[in-house]
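Amino acid chain
________________
===
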Amino acid sequence: MGLSLRCSDSRTTALDVVVRADGIAAVADMPECSVHCILSDIPYGIGIDRWDVLHENTNSAFLGTSPAQARAGSVFRRRGKPLNGWSAADRRIPLEYQKWCESFACHWLRVLKPGGSALVFAGRRLSHRCVVALEDAGFTFKDSLAWLRGFAPHRAQRLSAVFQRRGDHANAAKWAGWRVGNLRPIYEPILWFTKPYPIGTTIADNVLAHGVGAYNETRLVGYEGDQDNVLRAGFGPSEGKHHLAQKPLRLLCALIELATTEGQTVLDPFCGSGSTLVAARRLGRHYIGFDLDELAVASAKRRLSSEEAEWLDDEPNLFTMLRDRKPSDPP
């Protein structure tokens, strides 16, 4: 028989499950103060795919593919909106994203234990809107960590190429070396929030009462080699691509061990293909995951039921070696 959480109003939530459900509504129905950590790679609201469109202002071109994009390959797989927008209404997209974050922030605060952490992957452009939404709900914004990605495509178009297509060779030469777009997106923010603990008490008091509030420096150093808020953990050599926005298991393990201990519960309301849940299970934590995408949930269930390691089969202790490495050990 499976484990479950229960509260005084008879609501229950099963542990060690991944469920196809609206993560916002599902968390709203969870017991109060029932999880120790929320770790989630939430939609960034930048239109990476249809599940990432969180505003109402769309049109027939949005997320489409032009012939030029098809020739360019996967780097330009979808047509997105320019930062300047296609209409005045597009200027409201950041506010609409903030309101979407507000729709779940109060529920996250309620289900976390006092002092518990919410670690949120958020896009660079709109992460500040997530911060405002969660702060307004009552969270404390503790820090913004930076995850350095091992690889990131550079989608900035050459300005000279634009003029060349127009037959304007003079301006093509004049603006050689200039680009339209952003710098290479080599880092992603990880927003670190905590649920306030009772005023008049200390973090040490809260750790004794609820088991959360401090962070495990030893474990972080074991993964990263230092105590910095810049993380470099990348994908293992045999980690497959289960999801468009997948994050490395080693990175998720580092974050889980940073804020929780064995036997505690990790919640991911937007779990996708289940990487957070796989990491939690490997570390002896309970997990709860929700996602609306039927294929993603099926992938998560397969990964959780599989006994096949995500790391190289001939190096079964690689994860433990990385996790437990001492600061004095060579990298």
Q: What stands out?
A: Residues 60-65, 307-331 have pLDDT under 50 and may be disordered.
